[in-house]
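user: Here is a favour to ask of a fellow structure person. I have my own habits and do not want them to colour yours. Could you put it straight underneath, so I can go through it closely?

assistant:
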Amino acid sequence: MKYYKTYYQRNLPHYHPEGYALFVTFRLINSLPLHIIKELQEKNDKLLKHISGISDKRIKSEFYREHHQNYFEEFDGWLDRYKESPRWLGNANAANVVKEAIHFNDDKDFELLAFTIMPNHVHIVFTPIVDRDSSRSRIQDAEKEKKLRNGNDINVVLQDRSISLVADILRKIKGSTARECNKILSRMGAFWQHESYDHVIRDEIELKHIVEYVLNNPVKARLCEKWEDWAHSYCNFEKM
């Protein structure tokens, strides 16, 4: 049975508490070279190790939030400026395939709040739609969340055969769009990088900040003057 799983791990830890909106970024294969990824990861690991040693939980939480924001903005900045990155989503037809796939899953797997499709990556903000009959998973995940809140969220690796709903959402979008985009671009092989970045949005203030960031990414990357001019952005202001 597939149910909502609040925590899973590939190369990075992913924490998805039920009922919160998520900010997710996924990117094209080989959009950043390994030496940049390694440099970012080493810096990330060093800072997380330092933060994990802070005893005050409130201060630790604030440091975690600030660190994740800084880490992501540095990571995303590299995506915007790395000249050797593939720009397959700069093809309007390919970008439209991704746009349609995101909208297709809206109100099925998630409630869509916003997205922007950049030439080599995609930002999306959504709230997963949870199966309310999955009582067993919620009991199990309550115990896991208790461990996470005790400051062990970075180093805990949970061996669990369940399928993360969030991972499944990305699998659907990336799987279908990879095939169609490859056809449009007359290419073969992997299209998306396996790993994605995700962040739990804790409150309305943070939601507003992140949506503004998502919509203005093309402006920051100097691809347009106003976010409204970018053909591959969307925001559902009624749900904000």
User: Anything to note?
Assistant: The two ends are 32 Å apart (CA to CA). Residues 1-16, 151-163 have pLDDT under 50 and may be disordered. The CA atoms of residues 218 and 224 lie 6 Å apart. Strands lie at 7-9, 13-15, 21-27, 110-117, 121-128, 197-201, 233-235.
